[in-house]
Amino acid sequence: MLTRTIYLSLDPYQWGRRRSSLETAGEVCHGRTVSQVVESNMPAYREGDFVFNTNGWQAYGLTGEGISVFTYMFPRQIDPALAPISTAIGVLGMLGLTAYAGVYVQCAPKAGETVVVSAASGGVGQIVGQIAKLCGCRVVGIAGIPNKCAFVTAVLDFDACVSHKSPDLPEALAAACPDGIDAYFENVGGKVFEAVLPLLNPRSRISLCGLVSQYGNPSSDDPHEAWRNQGQSTFQRQNVEVHQLVVGNFVATHQDAFLADMADWVRDGRIKYKEDLWPGLRQAPTAFRAMLEGGNFGKTLVGVGED
Ligand code: NDP
């Protein structure tokens, strides 16, 4: 089918594709999209339907086994009555599933435990913290500027949020976690991880989702290995469970349950979401850079037809 892109999702993994030479200059950049069907030879889709697919950074794309520019990945119908269609690349999409898999499946926090999440106001982080609140946990966010910290506590109802820009990050985080940390959702790495390490409780769990602080670092060949080396002695001493998170591994097993739960939570306001919409495909490179540098606020997406 031929589809017209409406929203393009910008995600930090796209930087990794560049870096690992999965993409070279002149090729279409990878990107998950919300699109509308223009013409279809696929029986499950009709003209006018809204779909989640992978058109990449382009205004139109072909979807179908063997004809998509990118690996044919989990296209699905979007029900516009369920929620705004943009949520299919956000809270009701891979991003929400990432949070759900990391918190529910991997960290499985119990009521009363302390859960910490980095990049707390971002696309994944904001959902992680709210799911942990639904589990009855004390939730502490780590974010950049004061506005983001204020949003995380005042709007999303986290118990506390500390700034990684503060020179007192280790002390501030320790004060916000008086009973230590039972589960940590890692989006960032670097000095944020350094501040988390001494606070990890025995048998705590970590979901290693991403290491965005390392994504522009040319000297870091394998950020994951460097991260594991940094944490190794603490992991052994405290018997910490580390779970690598790859959202694609949870689609077959957890997507249906996730969509049912999350649609309910969004509908009744138990999960809120903040999007950062950049109008016009031309803005994609600027928006992408801003996201990696913390210049975004919420889930970053591009309104493709909006220039
Ligand atoms: P975000 O919306 O969270 O944007 C990235 C955020 O990272 C920025 O807003 C900024 O927030 C923070 N950041 C950037 N540089 C630094 C730094 N040096 N130190 C501390 N914080 C920094 O992006 P997403 O929600 O899309 O992605 C979050 C993470 O999830 C990423 O690591 C990504 O790779 C990962 N991911 C992994 C998946 C998987 O399957 N494992 C799937 C989807 C996402 P602030 O201003 O608060 O510092």
From TrEMBL:
Stretches assigned to the Oxidoreductase N-terminal domain: 2-62
Keywords for the protein's UniProt record, in alphabetical order: Oxidoreductase
Signal peptide: none
Protein name from the UniProt record: 15-oxoprostaglandin 13-reductase
The keyword Oxidoreductase is assigned to this record: yes
A Pfam family annotated for this UniProt entry: ADH_zinc_N
EC number: 1.3.1.48
UniProt cross-references to PANTHER family, sorted A to Z: PROSTAGLANDIN REDUCTASE, PROSTAGLANDIN REDUCTASE 1
GO molecular function, one term: oxidoreductase activity, acting on the CH-CH group of donors, NAD or NADP as acceptor
EC class name: oxidoreductase
Organism whose genome encodes this protein: Geodia barretti (Barrett's horny sponge)
InterPro entries given in the database record: ADH-like_C, ADH_N_2, GroES-like_sf, MDR_fam, NAD(P)-bd_dom_sf
Substrates-to-products reaction catalysed: 13,14-dihydro-15-oxo-PGF2alpha + NADP(+) = 15-oxoprostaglandin F2alpha + NADPH + H(+); 13,14-dihydro-15-oxo-prostaglandin F1alpha + NADP(+) = 15-oxoprostaglandin F1alpha + NADPH + H(+); 13,14-dihydro-15-oxo-prostaglandin E1 + NADP(+) = 15-oxoprostaglandin E1 + NADPH + H(+)
Alcohol dehydrogenase-like C-terminal domain boundaries: 123-214
Protein family (similarity comment): Belongs to the NADP-dependent oxidoreductase L4BD family.
